[in-house]
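Dear Dr. H.,

I hope your travels went smoothly. While you were away I took the liberty of generating a structure for the chain from your last submission, since the lab meeting agenda had it listed for discussion. I wanted you to have the full record in hand beforehand rather than looking at slides cold. The sequence, exactly as received, is reproduced here:
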Amino acid sequence: MKTAIKTSISSRTQSPCLILGVYSDQAFSHSTAEVNEACKGLLEKMQKSGDILTAVGKTTLIHQLDGVEAERLLIVGLGKSKELDGAKFTTACQAAGKQLRDLPVETASSSLHEADVQSQSQDWCLRQSIIAIGNANYLYTATKKPKEDAPNP
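The corresponding predicted structure, in token form, is as follows:
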């Protein structure tokens, strides 16, 4: 898996998949708020109506949202902001990786590292999100051919 780090994620980010985290009890992160503003508050409306799942590790996929250049948004639930610890954050990142594995994408842009994780730095969040997404997306192919219908890792 190749990883490239860019400094900002926004509605203008051109990507097959844009990964955003949402809390169940707090305002959006910087990137999620910017994307929400670009799509005229649709993410906030969907969250309030229950269409976006916010429990830890739950994912919601939204295709071709107006105002957003990414082909699809993968929204990952982070649960309650005060309860987000390292284990729950890793669970959320793994859920994103598993969902990515089932999508027809070869690259994705993630803002999960913006999460405020108890007792952890933003550097740790960035590193952990890369590791967890990569591990969840891993497919062993060294001596075993993948099935024909298996997704590309």
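Two observations you may find useful: Strands lie at 18-22, 59-63, 72-77, 109-110. The longest strand covers residues 72-77.

With kind regards,
E. W.
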